[in-house]
Design a protein that fits this description.
With about 210 residues, this protein is an alpha+beta fold. It has one domain: Trna Endonuclease, Chain: A, domain 1. About 35% of the residues lie in helices and about 20% in strands. The chain is built from seven helices and seven strands, in the order H-H-H-E-E-E-E-E-E-H-H-E-H-H. The termini are far apart.
């Protein structure tokens, strides 16, 4: 089955209902490097028009990239038996009495460069937002790790914070990050060598 990005106009119109669509609603925003998706649910990530089997494959690809990088860093990664908004716990040995510090993780994967945040994610203390981009090309993939508070500060500094999607729908999703947002995220881009430092910084900021 073709994904929507591989279909021509006739195939797309035959498969999706555009009867209530308005042409050009977000054209100006898209030209500026991002677009808005108003959501009535909380997808983990990814463009909402993709078929379920494609989304699942995207999710699995992103999870493999994330898991590989974290384990290469020498950290312990555990999936909770019940998700409840948490996809993983990352554990590291602390230097104080050799106790393990745990970090809850929400994984968000994309074949492009999706950056999203939802207000309800703030209910989980210390939640780490892990964004994995370009999951179909592992060699070109990018992993970013931000706390909810750090992601919120980026959201607040941009026009997204005053959008109807954020105010009324409780979340915002940028499907194409654009140069300015990517510059803001640069310090949070992860490699296996940066994970321990990143977690140490987070632990200290939360008084751990």
């Amino acid at each position: 089955m073709k994904s929507p990005i591989d279909m021509n106009e006739a195939e797309i119109r035959a498969r999706f209902d555009f009867s209530k669509a308005t042409r050009g609603s977000f054209a100006a925003r898209y030209q500026n490097g991002h677009t808005v998706i108003l959501l009535d649910h909380d997808p983990d990530e990814e463009e909402t028009l993709l078929p379920a089997d494609i989304v699942e494959t995207t999710r699995q690809s992103g999870a493999r990239i994330f898991e590989s990088q974290v384990r290469e860093a020498g950290l312990v990664l555990v999936e909770p038996p019940k998700k409840n908004g948490i996809d993983y716990f990352i554990y590291r040995e602390t230097q104080v009495e050799e106790q393990r510090a745990s970090f809850p993780v929400k994984l968000k994967t994309s074949i492009h460069e999706v950056f999203s945040l939802y207000k309800k994610e703030s209910r989980i203390p210390g939640l780490l937002m892990a964004y994995v981009w370009h999951v179909k090309e592992p060699k070109d993939s990018e992993v970013y790790a931000l706390t909810y508070d750090e992601a919120f500060e980026i959201m607040r500094s941009k026009p997204y914070f005053t959008s109807q999607a954020w105010i009324d729908e409780g979340g915002y999703s940028i499907t194409h990050a654009g140069a300015e947002l990517k510059k803001m995220l640069r310090e949070y881009r992860m490699t296996p060598k940066k994970w321990h430092q990143r977690l140490q910084s987070i632990q200290e900021s939360y008084g751990g």
